[in-house]
Amino acid sequence: MKTEYVPVVAALVSALAALFGATIGAIVSYFVARRQYNVTAVAQNRQAWINTLRDTVAELQSLIPPLYHWVGNDAEQAANDSYRRASFLTCKLRLLINPRETDHQQLADLAEKAFTGATGAKQKQPKEIADIQRELTSTTQAILKREWERVKRGR
Asked: pTM score, two decimals?
């Protein structure tokens, strides 16, 4: 009588093992797919942030030299438009950065320094503004390089 149950038990054990294996496989697949989705979403968002930061700094940089020469000429509408745009970009840059990262804070401070140096009551000399802009560029490049490496690593 005991031998009658052996095929049934063997079939049951085999079916349970297959069910267990399929369940584990499905769970692992779910977590792998979820991780991959998160990595992809983060990478896409980080790349969009990199592009926005690069464009914002580049546009701000392009407005600084003309602003230096236009300030004080209220009749020049282009100066007023450029002033507003540069002010907007300086504020936007402050919102794009991570205030807990030192080089991000330095970037925002340099942008503010370039803007106020070109337009403020105490305008800086052109050479000083050019030096600030070079530092702004190199700081931006360092941040963009680090962020690009994060994108490539998938973090």
From this structure: 0.70
The number of folded domains in the chain is: 1
Q: What is the CATH number of the domain that holds 81?
A: 1.20.120
Neighbours of 119 (CB within 10 A): 20
Closest C-alpha to 105, from 115, 114, 95: 95
The model's pLDDT over 71-89, given as tens digits with 9 standing for 90+, comes to: 555 545 556 788 889 999 9
Close Cβ partners of 149 (under 8 Å, ≥ 6 residues apart): none
**Nearest-angstrom CA–CA distance, 134 and 155:** 29
Contact present, 67 and 118 (Cβ < 8 Å)? yes
CA-to-CA dists, residue 142 to 52, 57, 115, 152, angstroms: 15, 13, 21, 15
DSSP secondary structure code for residue 100 in this structure:
T
